[in-house]
Amino acid sequence: MVQFFLNWTEKDIRVSNMTCGQFISEQKLSNDWKIVCFWNGKLGKSLKPHSLEFRRVTATDVVTMYGTFYPHHTVSTIRKRGQSSEMPPKLLFHTFMESGSSSKVIDVYDPHLEFNSGLHGDVTITHLTNYGCRKCVHLVELSNDMRRLLEPENCCLADVYLKCGEASIPAHKIILSARSPVFAAMFKNPMKENHENEVVIDDMEVPVLQLMLTYVYTGNLSDLTVSSVSDLLYAADKYQLGDLKKMCCEFLKNRISLQNVLRIVLLGELHCNELKSRAIDYICLVCKEISVFENTEEWKTLTKERPDLTVDILTAVLKA
């Protein structure tokens, strides 16, 4: 598995003589891989990415490709029932390339995004062994099909709306119920949410809800940070999404640092004892003296709000 980062600005976009004057930008990822972006619009004005083409020299393996691209200077809005909300705009893709294929084109055009020229993001390419290749390909196809249900043009198929702040996000009761015991109980019983076809979610931000829905529908996540995963862990716990909770905890375990370890101790106390233990072990290993933390705002806040946790930390450090 190899991850590549891309950053195209307007100066990287040129007219291609090979494609009847279409605007393109390209980047060599490695000696074996190149990616080309095809653009619609006019140079100097608003250009929108239309499609991506992955090209490779060696075409022997089956590979999966997934990534997240962000248009530069973008604004994206979900509109429903007369309401609007600022949403973080991004282009997600997850696809595969068969053995023997030297190129793959992916449609990434999104009419709902408005932005100036430019694109940045990352792509991960994974070479698959023969064992399990076909199963993996089918799962990628299924994940892509499920992701399309979240696209705005398919909102007419929704039978419930998740009200979060000013956003009203269309969803499907059967999918939510299949993935979450909490949603299943909500929609199987004569509850307000089931009758009104609306679920009010007022304890998380819209981007976190979007991440949770992406996982519920596709089983995949990308572009994660310690901050976003910390909030996502709460959502996973609330809606009893066991696999998502494990994913969040593993992500946080692998990213513990002096800057975030106290926050992760608290998250572990709230959601996962194993995560709490890992964070305290990190403190014992790295910090020979608790004075490293004593003058920080995080430690002062933790001492005031959760003195029991500071006692746990101090006890562990003294025993180490």
Notes on the protein architecture:
This protein is α+β, with helices and mostly antiparallel strands. The chain is 39% helix and 29% strand. It is built from twelve helices and 15 strands. It has a five-stranded antiparallel beta sheet with strand order 2-3-4-5-10, with no helix packed on it. A four-stranded antiparallel beta sheet has the order 1-12-6-9, with helices on one face. A hairpin with a 5-residue loop joins strand 4 and strand 5. Helix 2 packs across helix 3, helix 5 crosses helix 6 and helix 6 runs antiparallel to helix 7. The longest helix is centred in the middle third of the chain and has 16 residues. The protein is globular, with a radius of gyration of 23 Å. About 5% of the residues have low confidence. It comes from Larinioides sclopetarius. Pfam families: BTB.
List the helices and strands and how they pair.
Blueprint lengths: L1 E7 L5 E2 L7 E6 L4 E9 L5 E10 L5 E10 L2 E7 L2 E5 L3 E7 L5 E5 L6 E2 L3 E10 L4 H16 L11 E5 L2 E5 L1 H7 L1 H8 L3 H5 L1 E3 L5 H13 L7 H13 L3 H12 L7 H11 L1 H14 L4 H4 L2 H9 L1 H13 L1
Parallel strand pairs: 13-15
Antiparallel strand pairs: 1-12, 2-3, 3-4, 4-5, 5-10, 6-9, 6-12, 7-8, 7-11, 13-14
